[in-house]
């Protein structure tokens, strides 16, 4: 994944820029960094303080209770590893859970969660996609937001 597109959005993430412009830029960033890999089925950038979806792929609109459940999964990683996650009407087996990242699988489909200071990145992949590429793309985008203090 090339990083050229990440630098373009810096100006738009600064305070004082209207939310509509920020959301458009976040939507573009989400597409360029995740969807364009062709190894991310659905994804969203969620503001952690109020569970607001800031950007999402087409047709991916997690409910508030789903978002809260995903956020709560980070509170007790050992329990999350043991119990897994129920998401999108499926039970996912947790394959990794720590204070920053959770990876879960349901058959050949997967769910990737990565949190930053103020954001939660959510991504899914399907059986025809490479889980490692999905994880790498989401983690790189999270690193970008962490570098920006987001």
Walkthrough of the structure:
The structure is a single chain. This protein is an alpha+beta fold and 150 residues long. The chain has helices at residues 4-8, 19-33, 64-72, 77-83, 131-147; strands at residues 42-47, 52-56, 85-87, 90-97, 101-106, 109-115, 119-125. Strands 2-1-7-6-5-4-3 form a 7-stranded antiparallel β-sheet, with helices on both faces. A hairpin with a 4-residue loop joins strand 1 (42-47) and strand 2 (52-56). Mean pLDDT is 88; it is low at 1-12.
Give the assembly state of these chains.
single chain
Strand content: 25-35%
The string of secondary-structure elements, in order, is HHEEHHEEEEEH
SS field, number of helical segments? 5
Unreliable residue stretches: 1-12
Computed CA radius of gyration, to the nearest angstrom: 15 Å
- Tell the overall outline: globular
Helix amount, in percent? 25-40%
The average pLDDT score comes to: 88
- The counted number of beta strands is 7
Q: Enumerate the strands of the largest sheet in spatial order, edge to edge or round the barrel.
A: 2-1-7-6-5-4-3
Give the N-terminus to C-terminus distance in angstroms: 21 Å
Described by strand count, sense and barrel closure, the largest sheet is: 7 strands, antiparallel
Strand pairing plus helix content: what structural class?
Answer: alpha+beta
């Amino acid at each position: 994944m090339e990083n050229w597109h990440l630098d373009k959005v810096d100006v738009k993430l600064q305070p004082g820029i209207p939310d509509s412009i920020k959301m458009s830029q976040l939507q573009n960033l989400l597409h360029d960094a995740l969807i364009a890999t062709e190894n991310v089925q659905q994804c969203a950038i969620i503001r952690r303080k109020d569970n607001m979806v800031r950007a999402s792929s087409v047709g991916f609109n997690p409910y508030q209770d789903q978002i809260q459940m995903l956020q709560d999964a980070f509170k007790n990683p050992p329990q999350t590893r043991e119990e897994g996650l129920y998401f999108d009407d499926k039970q996912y087996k947790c394959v990794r859970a720590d204070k920053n990242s959770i990876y879960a699988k349901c058959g050949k489909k997967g769910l990737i969660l990565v949190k930053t200071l103020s954001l939660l990145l959510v991504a899914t992949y399907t059986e025809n996609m490479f889980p490692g590429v999905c994880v790498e793309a989401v983690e790189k985008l999270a690193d970008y937001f962490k570098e920006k203090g987001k």
